[in-house]
Amino acid sequence: MLKLAGWLLKNLFKKPLTIEFKGKSLKEVRTTYRGYPTHRGERCVGCRLCIYVCPSDAIRIEGSLFIINKCKCTACKDCADACPFGAMQFIPRLIGTAISKNEYMEITEIKLVKCENCGEPMPKPELLLERLLGKPPKNIPSYLNLCPKCRRQQI
Amino acid sequence: MEFLKELFLYPGLFFGFILGGLLEGVKRKLKAKMQLRIGPPITQPFYDLNKLMVKTITKPYGVAPSVYLLIPFIPTIALIFCFLLMPYPFYQEKTAFSFDLILVFYLTEIPLLAQIIFGYFTKSPYGMVGAARAGQMFFYYNALFIMVITTLSLLGDPPYSFCIKTIAEAWSPLDIVIKLLTLPFFVFAVLPKLKLNPFSIPDAEAEILEGPLTEASGLALAFFKLNYLLELAIFGSLFSFFYLPVLKISPQIGLILLLLGAFSLTFAFGFVENLTARLRLSQFSSLYLNHLIPLATGLLVITWILKTW
Q1: Residues of CATH 3.30.70.3270 domain(s) within chain A?
Q2: What is the DSSP letter of B1?
Q3: Residue B246: which of B130, B147, B161, B167 has the closest Cα?
Q4: A9 to chain B: nearest residue by CA?
Q5: Any CB–CB contact under 8 A between A2 and chain B?
Q6: Helix runs in B154-286, H state only
Q7: Across the interface, do A16 and B54 touch by the CB < 8 Å criterion?
Q8: Sequence-distant (≥ 6) Cβ neighbours of residue B139 within 8 angstroms
Q9: Chain B residue with the nearest C-alpha to that of A98
């Protein structure tokens, strides 16, 4: 024990073996790090495919709000693979400790457009065309600004 | 108004909180240095407490929230009053309090009793084991502490009293020898009171998580941590009053000496924590029952004979 006491007292005047973290915050991550999902409301059509494929039940939609629970998310990327419009994006950003559980909840609004005739919310026509044509459309036909119900009535 | 200032600023809550936080910060830094680590900044206990204050409370089912918060809050009040019972420089000249060591002893027991109650109240098996261990240890180290304070109360001139000021002002050659002899017993009584290694038996991290505080979270845990910091400041101050001539010199130098004494006790605690491994409960009881308590009793009898002869 005396030997150990001597070591401990000598250590007080030695340089530490550990090194200080230089970045102060964890900004840099490895290139292989996938990160956590982020929802892009402007690209979402509310089709719920991501909810269907999510194995950990981390996504839910309440009204027009899209909620990702990052406590439950396992970063499997199934939602991003399933989304037809690329609304789920993985950003290689670290999530650290939080003061409240709410800080792990990402809440975004699904931005739908309204039907020009009845005002019902419906997916953005440019997103559908982009999916159909494989590239962003140059101009949108006027009938696509109507919801499917109003379109059928007009025909 | 003056009383509120004393209660919340000096020597009350603010002084105790800052001193306790710095003592804990220095202890952690010194422990890290001894292990060749960089360690947290000295102000880390304040950050920890700040974070705990705003964290969400996760309490067990069936536990009333008011009682959950009340149990750690009562000892905080007791400990703040404890500061008013100690003859701090710039305070002892103007106060009407009697600096009763017995009262300080009782008040510093309240945090531990609260932890024991909390351990059973939260119904956690770890909490219950920790509380049972704390309850068993309570009798051993308090017997030693009572022997130490009774021996110290015989210092100075008759009539003998438990007044901290009288003990702090007793510096005759015989008093110095008795004080030096009681020093190791004081350290051995305070180490388990603060649940520091090798006597961190109730908080055995590897086996029973956090002992009685396993289910404490958020504001409740913040109060328990605050109580610990206040206790550290109280015992550091008591050490300075007993073993350094704080009240025999000018108040300015006395206050500096008091702080130095508290920090040196913290250094000793950090050193002992690094040097020793945690004891088992049976080893602890055997050490206190077979060696420390009989020796402290012997010292008390010898002091009494020398003083009354």
Answers
A1: 33-111
A2: -
A3: B167
A4: B34
A5: no
A6: 164-168, 173-193, 205-208, 218-243, 251-275, 281-286
A7: no
A8: none
A9: B55
Overall residue count recorded for chain B in this entry:
309
Mutate to test the interface with B, among A2, A4, A12 (most CBs of B within 10 A): A12
Could you tell me the two tokens for B81?
Answer: 């009053």
ipTM over 0.90: no
Q: Which two tokens stand for residue B62?
A: 């069936």
DSSP-assigned states of every residue in B110-131: HHHHHHHHHHHHTT-HHHHHHH
Q: Is residue B59 within 8 Å of residue B209, measured between CB atoms?
A: no
CA-CA-CA-CA torsion sign (B290, B291, B297, B298)? positive
The helix (H) or strand (E) run that includes residue A68 is strand A65-69
| Distance between CA atoms of residues B31 and B10, nearest Å | 29
- Element (H or E) spanning A36, and its range? strand A36-39
A62 at interface of B, judged by CB pairs closer than 8 A: no
Instruction: Determine contact, residues B257/B246, Cβ cutoff 8 Å.
Output: yes
pLDDT by residue for chain A (155 residues), tens digit each? 889 889 989 988 998 888 776 655 556 667 788 888 999 988 898 889 999 999 999 999 998 899 999 889 998 999 999 999 889 998 887 777 777 778 889 999 998 888 888 888 888 888 888 888 888 778 888 888 888 888 888 77
CA distances from A148 to A118, A143, B57 (A): 11, 9, 49
Size of interface A-B (CB pairs under 8 A): 40
Has this prediction a pTM greater than 0.80?
no
- Closest Cα in chain A to B38: A16
CATH class for the region spanning A33-111? alpha beta
Closest CA of chain B from A9, distance in Å: 7
